[in-house]
Amino acid sequence: MPGDSELARQWLAKARSDLLNADNNLRSEEVPFDTVCFHCQQAAEKMLKAWLVAQGQNYPLTHDLLALLERILPLSPEAEPLRARLALLMPYAVEIRYPDDWFMPSRADAEEARRAAGEVLEWLKRLLPPLFGPA
Predict the structure, then answer these.
(1) Helices (H) and strands (E) in the chain — how many of each?
(2) How far apart, in whole angstroms, are the C-alpha atoms of residue 43 and residue 50?
(3) What pLDDT was estimated at residue 43?
(4) What is the per-residue pLDDT for 90?
(5) Local confidence band at 50 (pLDDT 50, 70, 90 cut-offs)
(6) Number of domains, the chain
(7) Exposed, middle or buried, 77 (CB in 10 Å: 0-12/13-18/19+)?
(8) What confidence tier does 114 reach under pLDDT thresholds 50, 70, 90?
(9) Do the domain assignments include residue 135?
(10) Domain that includes residue 62, residue range
C-alpha cells in the first residue's frame, strides 16, 4: 500500500468498534435504533477514510459519504456500486443526533443500515486485504 497503512488500520479499528456497537445494540432487549443507524454511518465513513489513507490520499473533513466516494472513484471505479448504500446511510450522520429534525428509525431501518455498513466492509476487504492481516 502506498499510503499510511498503520493509520489506515487505526481508521479500520475505529470502524469495527462502530460496527460492534451496532451489533451489540441490535442484540439488546431495548434497541436504540437511532444509535445503531448512527454507528453504521460512522463505520462506513471511517472505512472510506481508511481506504483513502491507505492510498496516500487526503480526505475531506466531512460526514458526507458521497463526497468521500467521489474522492475514491477516480482511483477505484469499482466503488460505484456502494453509492446507493452510502446514500441510505447519509441521513444518519448528523440529522439523527438532534431533536430538531427528529425521527426514529425502525428495527428494519437499523438492520438495513447494518447491512449497508457490512457491504462497505466487504468492499474494503476485497480491495485492501492487507489492512485485515497482521501489521
Answers:
(1) 5, 0
(2) 10
(3) 98
(4) 95
(5) very high
(6) 1
(7) exposed
(8) very high
(9) no
(10) 5-129
The answer to whether 3 touches 56, Cβ cutoff 8 Å, is yes
In the prediction, which pLDDT does 133 show?
82
Most confidently modeled of 11-20, 90-99, 101-110?
11-20
Instruction: Give the residue-averaged pLDDT of 95-106.
Output: 77
Q: Is residue 134 part of a domain?
A: no
Residue at 55: amino acid letter: Q
Residue 31 belongs to a domain: yes
Place of cell 453504521: 40
Task: Please give the Cα distance from 36 to 125 (Å, whole number).
Answer: 22
Residue 68 to residue 78: CA distance in whole angstroms: 14
Say whether pLDDT at 42 is over 90: yes
The CATH code of the domain that includes 118 is 1.20.120.330
Task: Kindly state whether residue 81 falls inside one of the protein's structural domains.
Answer: yes
How far is residue 40's CA from residue 34's CA, in Å, rounded to a whole number? 10
